[in-house]
Amino acid sequence: MKVGAFSAEFLRLKEKEKRLTRRLRNGNIIGVYEMCGIGKTTLVKEVARLARQDKLFDHDEKKILIVLDNVWKHVYLDTVGIPFRDDHKDVNYC
């Protein structure tokens, strides 16, 4: 990979990181998907780290962050204990 290509990819991922963090601050449910090997897990780990650092989620306040990684089949959130109501229809994807 050329240095310029690496820099462009890094900037693209940093921009996605900012968008994801902004959406989390707004209380949105977010889905992240792309082809394999693009850095989704690394991106989400960094966003989760930033969320913990900024104290965006607090179990006592009933505002928690759940990360599902390496999911290859459809997941019905309510069957794994995550309530999914009509007000959650606007799931954001990156």
The major β-sheet equals: 2 strands, parallel
Whole-number total of structural domains = 1
Q: Estimate percent helicity.
A: 25-40%
Helix tally? 2
List the secondary-structure elements in sequence, H or E.
HEHE
For the biggest β-sheet, the strand order reads: 1-2
Find the structural class using helix and strand composition: mainly alpha
* Low-pLDDT segments: none
Radius of gyration: 15 Å
Distance between the termini: 24 Å
On the 0-100 scale, what is the average pLDDT?
Answer: 78
State which percent range the strand residues make up. under 5%
Oligomer: single chain
Q: Give the tally of β-strands.
A: 2
Global shape: globular
Give the arrangement of secondary structure elements.
Elements: H1 3-25, E1 30-31, H2 40-53, E2 92-93
Parallel strand pairs: 1-2
Helix pairs in contact: 1-2
Description:
It comes from Citrus x changshan-huyou. This is NB-ARC domain-containing protein. By secondary structure, the chain is mainly alpha-helical. The chain has one domain (3-93). Helices cover 39% and strands 4% of the residues. It has two helices and two strands, in the order H-E-H-E. It has a two-stranded parallel sheet with strand order 1-2. Strand 1, helix 2 (40-53) and strand 2 form a beta-alpha-beta unit. Helix 1 packs across helix 2. The radius of gyration is 15 Å and the shape is globular. The model has no long low-confidence stretch (mean pLDDT 78).
Key descriptive features of the protein:
39% helix, 94 residues, mainly alpha, two-stranded parallel ribbon, 4% strand, 2 helices
